[in-house]
Amino acid sequence: MSPTALPQCVISPDEYALTEAGERMRPMQIPEDIFEEFIRIAEPNTQQNLETCGVLCGKVVPGQETLVVTTLIIPKQKATSDTCTTENEEELVVTQMQLELLTLGWIHTHPSQTCFMSSLDLHTHFSYQQFMPEAIAIVCSPKYDPRYGVFRLTDPSGMDVIKSCKQEAAFHPHDGSDIIYTNADPDGHVVKARYSFEIIDLRNA
């Protein structure tokens, strides 16, 4: 595999966003068609009331602190109506290394639920955002409006709550006094733009 090409960046070099603590975050450009395209890919699973998940990959724009999603990778996976677990993660890592791609977040469907971050989603996303503060979680809800949302854990509050949570059950409540997650788009660090992106479906490999 050849390294993935970087599309044109529409974000200015001096643009940035802030966390709840006032820390700078790099802006992230994502393709505006990725939501409906992923919903289309997930349709066979959605019809069976099964979740589908994927990994958002991309690069840093040379010369500026901007992240660009260039590639959607669909790993091998096992799913239920409200869970999705990746399998053969070594294959995913090798693919990213060959294409020189960073992990910028993840995307998954709620086949029969509305668009929100469940407690399991929050714990899953914590590991992404701990590794990269700008990492995003996209939730697609094909049967409801809105059909998608782009989220991140608040920092502070959300990151601290999930880090200290000792609940063992997959689905459980968290303290309602804290805002645990927030929209990354609009009015966040995510900017949508029209450009082509690559889709790699490892389920067929």
UniProtKB/TrEMBL annotation:
TM stretches of this protein: none
UniProt xrefs under InterPro entries: JAMM/MPN+_dom, MPN, STAMBP/STALP-like_MPN
All copies of domain MPN, residue ranges: 28-160
Cofactor: Zn(2+)
Cited Pfam families: JAB (PF01398)
Highest taxon of the lineage: Eukaryota
Keywords assigned by UniProt, alphabetized: Hydrolase, Metal-binding, Metalloprotease, Protease, Ubl conjugation pathway, Zinc
Gene Ontology annotations for the cellular component aspect, listed alphabetically: endosome; membrane
N-terminal signal peptide: none
MF (Gene Ontology): K63-linked deubiquitinase activity; metal ion binding; metal-dependent deubiquitinase activity
GO biological process: protein K63-linked deubiquitination; proteolysis
Recorded family membership: Belongs to the peptidase M67C family.
Protein name listed in UniProt: Mov34-domain-containing protein
Organism: Linderina pennispora
